[in-house]
């Protein structure tokens, strides 16, 4: 099956850091700052959103690789903006550059890869 996913498409998601997003709350650290797992989740979600509307009904993407740097801390209440750029398409494999900023500057950057799957077929394969 051919997919209408083209290099160069982008997506942006904005959010605000809450107590539930902190390293202390998630157990990834002891401080009340935006956690690395939440930043990665935001980057994955932004990448997924980048291609969602370009896939046929019944298809989605799953994350298969993440390589990011968390450059600086963001406190509760800070606005976060994440951008994903689809840089390469290799069949069903999609490669993204991802970046995130808070109100003071860049907080994270890296790459993310996703794979196009048929949702129903994928769930059948993973059922025990």
From TrEMBL:
<dbReference type="InterPro" id="IPR025540">
    <property type="entry name" value="FlK"/>
</dbReference>
<dbReference type="InterPro" id="IPR054485">
    <property type="entry name" value="FlK-like_dom"/>
</dbReference>
<dbReference type="Pfam" id="PF22636">
    <property type="entry name" value="FlK"/>
</dbReference>
<protein>
    <submittedName>
        <fullName>Thioesterase family protein</fullName>
    </submittedName>
</protein>
<feature type="domain" description="Fluoroacetyl-CoA-specific thioesterase-like">
    <location>
        <begin position="17"/>
        <end position="120"/>
    </location>
</feature>
């Amino acid at each position: 099956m051919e997919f209408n996913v083209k290099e160069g498409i982008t997506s942006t998601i904005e959010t605000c850091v809450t107590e539930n997003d902190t390293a202390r709350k998630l157990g990834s650290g002891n401080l009340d700052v935006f956690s690395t797992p939440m930043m990665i989740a935001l980057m994955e979600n932004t990448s997924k959103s980048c291609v969602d509307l370009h896939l046929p009904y019944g298809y989605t993407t799953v994350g298969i690789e993440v390589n990011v740097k968390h450059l600086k801390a963001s406190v509760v209440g800070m606005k976060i903006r994440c951008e994903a750029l689809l840089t390469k398409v290799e069949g069903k494999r999609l490669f993204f550059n991802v970046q995130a900023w808070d109100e003071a500057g860049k907080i994270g950057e890296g790459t993310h890869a996703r794979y196009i799957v048929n949702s129903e077929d994928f769930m059948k394969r993973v059922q025990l």
